[in-house]
Hints:
alpha/beta, four-stranded antiparallel β-sheet, 16 strands, 25% strand
Amino acid sequence: MLLMKNLENLYQEFKELRHFIHQNPELGFNELNTAKLVANKLKEFGYEVYEGIGKTGVVGVLKKGNSAKSIGLRADMDALSINECNNFSYASKNGCMHACGHDGHTAGLLMAAKYLASAEFNGTLNLFFQPAEECCDEELLSGAMRMIKDKALERFRVDYIYGIHNMPSSQMKGYENKKFFMKRGVMMAGVSAYRVDFIGLGGHASAPHLCKDPISVANNFVNALYTFKSLELKDSVLNVTGFLAGTTKAFNIIPNEASVMINVRGLSNDELSFIHKRINEIAKGIAAAFNVEVNVKRAENIKATINNDEAYDIAKNAAIKAFGENDCEFNHPHLMGSEDFSAFLDEVKGTYAFINNGDSANLHHPEYDFNDEVLLLASKYFSTLVLDYLKD
């Protein structure tokens, strides 16, 4: 009760902060002002602050006592390239939008950070404010991957790491009245995105025998992919999501190039690796058969989000203490959406969970808004995790 009362006293401050972040969104790896705001707040609360981790990431460190135990909490900061359709006073001013609630994730973790700065514990708390959960950089690294490449987990060691995401109740069919959702094992799918370019020889449509028609080759590739999909996939979905070729300005041109876009989602990292191998084999085999060139580019590669059993048990106990067992669902079905928090889970034990955002528009919708009441839920869960694990 005392924890909740203390957090309620902070609510208005961080509600206003969340609205400010929402009104001033920044895209992945460009969260310069958001990162500076986070860094300044953490310094104000008494944390050691490290900036520029993973390009625009921020890490806050708070050590108390003499215990070697350490725990990590993560929030994402980036917005999406979506024009907001809301007309409330704090709607976005700059053409992009916090349509996934990362403004609330950031404000909620800062709220917990302020409370924990005055709380008693024994050990080290590392807060990871991550850029670019929604995108990758020129090396195809997402924000979590980039922070790890910048040795964030080596510099700021943690025994366990925890993350959350808000989730509109409409996307939690059958569990709309619960507050907290988590499951052991696979929580979310991994995702890979591909662009496969077939380079043939263009020319006049009246003389196809003088050309190497890349549309015909790409069409054979698509048919082969769907045969592969139906015969060999178990825990994954594969879809062709784009086919780019030709021009709408003339109808008598055989193009030089045709491109196929592919999206793959899977619950098994081993199967995702197998699919990657087969896409390359099928593309190269068909290109060789028709004597054209091919270029396979993987534009995204996020592993499945798999909760560690040991970390799950710690999180489950904290959630029950924070919300009560009746308000928690610990066997929520996995989702086919993906989350680059999986990169952290590939390096250290941890878990990922959802908190009910209520009756809001769906994620990535231009009318979506983060439910400010979730600031209290997220900060209570994070604070309970830290105080339970780093008991004085």
